[in-house]
């Protein structure tokens, strides 16, 4: 389990305790966090779960796959060096205390 804080574009902060193996996209959509759409259901095919990870997460996450990098080319909001797709980030103890910022728009 990992406590992950999602900060929406309007500043609303929500901390979720996510089960190991759940993607951040699954956790956000299941708990009504605005700012994550997840149109493709987590198959890395839509880029509507674009997020910005904090330094803690950036330091422990594996590098994005080529498929994720390709999808990040299609994000609507500004792509940044810390841009990731929430469907590709799986919760686990190493992510404890991580913070994810959500862009103003996904579509």
Automatic annotation (TrEMBL):
Gene Ontology BP annotations: P450-containing electron transport chain
Tell me the keywords, alphabetical order: 2Fe-2S, Iron, Iron-sulfur, Metal-binding
Question: Coiled-coil stretches, from where to where?
Answer: none
Question: One Pfam family of this protein, by short name?
Answer: Fer2
Statement: the UniProt record of this protein carries the keyword Glycoprotein: no
Transmembrane stretches, start-end: none
Which positions fall inside the 2Fe-2S ferredoxin-type domain? 2-106
Q: Does the keyword Ribonucleoprotein apply?
A: no
Q: Which CDD domains match?
A: fer2
Cofactor(s) needed: [2Fe-2S] cluster
An example Gene Ontology CC term for this record: cytosol
Q: Which GO terms describe its molecular function?
A: 2 iron, 2 sulfur cluster binding; electron transfer activity; metal ion binding
Query: Which family is this protein grouped under?
Result: Belongs to the adrenodoxin/putidaredoxin family.
Which PANTHER family does the protein's record reference? FERREDOXIN-2, MITOCHONDRIAL, FERREDOXIN/ADRENODOXIN
UniProt-recorded name of the protein: 2Fe-2S iron-sulfur cluster binding domain-containing protein
- Source organism of this protein record: Hydrogenophaga aromaticivorans
């Amino acid at each position: 389990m990992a406590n992950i804080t999602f900060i929406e574009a309007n500043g609303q902060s929500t901390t979720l305790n996510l089960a190991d193996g759940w993607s951040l996209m699954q956790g956000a959509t299941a708990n009504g966090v605005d700012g994550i759409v997840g149109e493709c259901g987590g198959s890395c095919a839509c880029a509507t779960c674009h997020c910005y990870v904090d330094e803690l997460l950036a330091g422990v996450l594996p590098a994005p796959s080529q498929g994720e990098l390709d999808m990040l080319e299609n994000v609507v909001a500004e792509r940044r060096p810390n841009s990731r797709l929430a469907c590709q980030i799986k919760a686990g103890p190493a992510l404890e205390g991580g913070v994810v910022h959500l862009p103003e728009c996904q579509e």
